[in-house]
Prior knowledge:
The protein has 245 residues and is an alpha/beta fold. It is 40% helix and 16% strand. A five-stranded parallel sheet has the order 2-3-1-4-10, with helices on both faces. It is globular. Residues 1-9 have low confidence and may be disordered.
Amino acid sequence: MKNLLIRYATSIAKPGQQFLVLFGAPGVGKGTFAKLLINDTKFNHISTGDEIRKILKGNTSKSFDPKLIVTIKDIVAKGGLVSDEIVMNILQEKLKEPESTKGVILDGFPRTLRQLDLYEKILPTNVVVNVTLRADILLEKLAARRTCVSCGTAFNVCDINRDGYVMEPLNPKKEGICDACGGKLVVRDDDKKEVIEQRMKEYDEKTHPLLDRYRAMGVVIDFEVKRGKKDYPRLWDLVKSKLRV
């Protein structure tokens, strides 16, 4: 499949379209805050990892390029890794959706300096929210995640109340059973101790260096999570002071 990036010599952002990046370590709460921000910003939420999973399950929007879907399924079926260029193609397909007209929330992307280089060739960055959480608290929360094997709904059985951190558990009504669909809740491979440690190492090596670039742009908002979702009003005050919403 031809690289879609060669179609564009300049920015493909539409007039007035804004781009908010949620930045931070795996499990810090980017996805949770993204869902809350969607309601207030009316932006489209784009997680390239989630989009790849949707493609593999056949749950993409009708506007998605069918050739791109076939290409990604073929790569994954052969045990390959989706390239940075194809990830950018996924992003461009998401920008076609009407929900992206006002702006987008990028969740977990870009992940590497090369991805940021590709991104900056065609799109701007208006605000970067650097979501942080103390390392020991983060690891404890990651290990306590439970995910439905059927619908993907996430829960967290961790109950934290110490050192100024107050984070209540998000328990299912019935232990081990998803509230949304009745499916079985499991600990994903990504949430097992050895995998968490590897993901954190990769984040420190490949993703965290992006923060220096963003700081040089003057677009970073630092936001430390202390009370989980209850911190959202504070986050929203920071975001709306930087965006046209």
